[in-house]
Design a protein that fits this description.
With 169 residues, the protein is α/β, with parallel strands linked by helices. Strands 2-3-1-4-5 form a 5-stranded parallel sheet, with helices on both faces. Helix 2 packs across helix 3. It binds shikimate-3-phosphate. Shikimate-3-phosphate binds next to loops.
Length: 169
Amino acid sequence: MAEKRNIFLVGPMGAGKSTIGRHLAQQLHMEFFDSDTEIEERTGADIAWVFDVEGEDGFRVREEGVINDLTEKHGIVLATGGGSIKSRESRNRLSARGIVVYLETTIEKQLARTQRDKKRPLLQTDEPREVLESLAAERNPLYEEVADFVVRTDDQSAKVVANQIIDLL
Ligand code: S3P
């Protein structure tokens, strides 16, 4: 296995990208990045603030910039925001610059995991299930398009999923 190829995790909110990504990076002795955290560090404000002040379009511009920069790196594990694959440029860069793993899960699991924290602006609604379903219809084909591998994250722990990914590499 080529340890120094980048590993990019894509998938919807609540798929476990950040938690699994941290485990992967630790086990492979690679550096871990999270595109949302990177946006927050560069902006000096949280994601909710960016959505409030700059709108989703402003957020997407920042996200594309972060994906552009991080995909220049080598030997990193990157957890991408769930909507980052809407950008064709980001999809192309992810495909070209590393191994892309699509973390797939059920809407039920997404709901359960995202309810634990209230940080996602797109889910600040009375109908989070409907939002997640509509995002899935729009985005799942895009995750599939960029993915080298698809891994389900429904019931296993993050550590077990990380080991499954390592076996695939
Ligand atoms: C979003 C997903 C979030 C974050 C933002 C928008 C989306 O990241 O980038 O709230 O459009 O799906 P996670 O996928 O890490 O929750």
